[in-house]
């Protein structure tokens, strides 16, 4: 473990001078990108952040005040599981790949670049949120998520530099050149080009989009390409925190909204709250954009990734008996001649859909928890997840119109109900009008409840970000 090097790492960078030099050349470009595109207005402030300092389960993180540009972004892989074989696909039981097998080079690079691109994209999307934070606690959490996405970028860039030669170095540079929402050089995946201008969007993003990240990383953490497996395993520990921020963030808003619904007999706007119906529409929007991230329902790419042992299923090792998955079919409804019909899809070609199933049931758990919060405040309202076919831009259902229960509807019907089921301009304007910056230690914006506890055992009054 080299913690005090220019680039903290546990990959023995010292012993690979060429790689070390290449990464040290990339580092200033990264810092320049961070300064330009990272959180605006807080680069000189001390933030109470955790930094990864070890890969051991207990004590991998260290909390202290850091100015974000000085954050110790490092390269950490979970320790090697010795001689672990490939766990699935056509190469099952051969030794894990320590280097990139030539025939999989392009697919692997594509997987790594696509994952890598999401990391800086989300930092760009979230860069203005500090200016309307509901509390110092939340401000600090935003920055924690941002620096860790920066570290995730480092993790992917390490793989590109170490295993893909000149192509990899070029890809690493391009990761810093694309920009979220830019018309000429957009980020690769559409959810990462959507603006995030208010904190309800931020919490929906960390709840739903980062949760896609959890499932993608988990599928890659089964990979037969050992460096990718070990990198993504460590990233999952950080990702769990991002999900916590999103899940508890929405839960705190839901509680406050329910309280204000009750106080106002169903019209919380007058009391400065966010109506539960608007929260529902935000959920509809972000959940469905996240569903797109899993890719096509029927996918030969997904089949190839599985066959070649690069990307497994969720909990492949623990959950499944048959790791070859060369038999059997999955029924997937597709649109044919304007109606839905079932198609029998070979399991390997349905891998994206199987991962999406896991994601949906994970998301349903959160909805159940939030509904308990609403009920505990004595309000009669239930949040739901929209159907997986609703509001899709990728895959079998893109280009068709569905209602939130998944029934096919005409474009006219869909347009007529759009303002009821997706956030409208008025919704965005209302939510934005509530986003007034609160930065006194211990204070909380009115539209959200305080969290149950502070960070790292600190109180809610703690000065999580020093503003002066
Ligand atoms: Fe990430
Ligand atoms: Fe994340």
Descriptive report:
By secondary structure, the protein is mainly alpha-helical. The chain has one domain (13-466): Ribonucleotide Reductase, subunit A (Orthogonal Bundle). 46% of the residues lie in helices and 7% in strands. The chain has twelve helices and five strands. It has helices at 17-37, 105-125, 136-163, 165-175, 199-220, 226-263, 276-292, 300-307, 316-319, 351-376, 411-421, 425-434; strands at 46-52, 61-67, 329-336, 339-346, 465-466. Strands 2-1-5 form a three-stranded antiparallel sheet. Helix 2 runs parallel beside helix 4 (165-175), helix 3 (136-163) runs antiparallel to helix 4 and helix 3 packs antiparallel against helix 6 (226-263). It is globular. It binds fe (ii) ion (FE2) (2 copies). One fe (ii) ion binds next to helix 5 and helix 6.
What's the arrangement of secondary structure elements?
Blueprint: H1 17-37, E1 46-52, E2 61-67, H2 105-125, H3 136-163, H4 165-175, H5 199-220, H6 226-263, H7 276-292, H8 300-307, H9 316-319, E3 329-336, E4 339-346, H10 351-376, H11 411-421, H12 425-434, E5 465-466
Helix pairs in contact: 1-3, 2-3, 2-4, 3-4, 3-6, 5-6, 5-7, 5-10, 6-10
One fe (ii) ion (FE2) is lined by residues 119, 149, 152, 213.
